[in-house]
């Protein structure tokens, strides 16, 4: 059986592991974990029945797929550390925002098959959106095996690396922005007397249904807006007030700041 190892067991690694376990894509024991704080990963591994190892090198030795899930500031150090344990039979999968295939190859060698990915947190419930880019060493069955890790966790799209920055903003960071929007809707509901719990359920379901409608419909979002905004009705009044407060500009400015920081971190 293919074994998948995670270097770094923070929020994102746990979202991926949770999604893989829910999809029954890997047996718990075939998921190997290590991070620099035993107190964090050992109880987690024990609770889920994962295999915990005590060093990054041991993790690489025990894994066919090695997922780099550390923060960007330590990624280069970790790749240099694991280089001696990597072989061309193993696939290195990075989820680190801003870390290019070329930079990884300089640290672990040109022969290493590598898949650069950018998943989002919704992989945890099988509703993720993940960008993938493979280097020239990753081909055939090995590439399929690596990409399938993310196919079982939701949708995937192959992207040129120069588009990872905008993808990271639109899909990687946006769950936080969409949660912000849902919370704003829900807070408005509380203002009008709904309980926070009920208002959040209503706002979240309306957001979910609207996203599904955009994906299923052949209409663009602007046409769907017109379908909701009845002539002389309440929705158009709300839309105009939101736009007067600068909703679209606020969203685009937020994405600009996200993309800029992603470039700075690269
Ligand atoms: N949070 C998200 O929604 C997304 C995060 N990412 C990327 O995922 C990566 C991890 O992000 P988070 O999980 O949010 O961060 P996090 O801070 O929750 O997790 C980082 C993990 O790395 C471990 N670590 C640090 N130094 C280490 C070392 N030398 N050896 C082994 N493990 C070490 C930490 O103990 C921790 O478990 C980042 O590179 C980020 O860019 C990518 C897409 C989405
Ligand atoms: O905030 C971050 O840096 C990462 C990248 C995409 C989502 N979270």
UniProtKB/TrEMBL annotation:
Keywords: Amino-acid biosynthesis, Cytoplasm, NADP, Oxidoreductase, Proline biosynthesis. SUPFAM superfamilies: 6-phosphogluconate dehydrogenase C-terminal domain-like, NAD(P)-binding Rossmann-fold domains. Pathway: Amino-acid biosynthesis; L-proline biosynthesis; L-proline from L-glutamate 5-semialdehyde: step 1/1. This is Pyrroline-5-carboxylate reductase. It is an enzyme of class 1 (oxidoreductase). NADP(+) binds at residues 7-12, 35, 69-72. Belongs to the pyrroline-5-carboxylate reductase family. NCBIfam families: proC (TIGR00112). Catalyzes the reduction of 1-pyrroline-5-carboxylate (PCA) to L-proline. The gene is proC. GO terms for molecular function: pyrroline-5-carboxylate reductase activity. Its EC number is 1.5.1.2. NADPH binds at residue 56. It catalyses: L-proline + NADP(+) = (S)-1-pyrroline-5-carboxylate + NADPH + 2 H(+); L-proline + NAD(+) = (S)-1-pyrroline-5-carboxylate + NADH + 2 H(+). One of its GO terms (biological process) is L-proline biosynthetic process. One of its GO terms (cellular component) is cytoplasm. It is found in: Cytoplasm. Residues 3-98 form the Pyrroline-5-carboxylate reductase catalytic N-terminal domain. Residues 161-264 form the Pyrroline-5-carboxylate reductase dimerisation domain.
């Amino acid at each position: 059986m293919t074994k998948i190892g995670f270097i770094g067991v923070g929020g994102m690694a746990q979202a991926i592991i949770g999604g893989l376990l829910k999809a029954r894509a890997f047996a718990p024991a075939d998921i190997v974990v290590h991070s620099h704080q035993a107190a964090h990963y050992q109880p987690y591994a024990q609770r889920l029945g994962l295999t915990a190892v005590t060093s990054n090198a041991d993790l690489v030795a025990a894994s066919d797929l090695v997922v780099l899930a550390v923060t960007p500031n330590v990624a280069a150090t970790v790749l240099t550390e694991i280089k001696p344990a990597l072989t061309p039979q193993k696939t290195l999968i990075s989820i680190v925002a801003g870390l290019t295939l070329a930079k990884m190859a300089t640290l672990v060698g040109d022969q290493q098959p590598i898949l650069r990915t950018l998943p989002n947190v919704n992989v945890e419930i099988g509703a993720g959106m993940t960008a993938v880019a493979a280097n020239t060493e990753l081909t055939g069955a090995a590439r399929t095996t690596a990409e399938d890790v993310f196919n079982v966790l939701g949708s995937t799209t192959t992207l040129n690396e120069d588009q990872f920055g905008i993808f990271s903003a639109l899909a990687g960071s946006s769950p936080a922005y969409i949660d912000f929007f849902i919370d704003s809707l829900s807070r408005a509901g509380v203002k009008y007397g709904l309980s926070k719990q009920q208002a959040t359920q209503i706002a979240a379901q309306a957001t979910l249904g609207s996203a599904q409608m955009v994906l299923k419909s052949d209409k663009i979002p602007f046409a769907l807006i017109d379908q909701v905004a009845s002539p002389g009705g309440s929705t158009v009044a709300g839309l105009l007030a939101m736009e007067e407060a600068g909703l679209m500009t606020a969203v685009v400015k937020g994405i600009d700041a996200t993309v800029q920081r992603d470039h700075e971190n690269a």
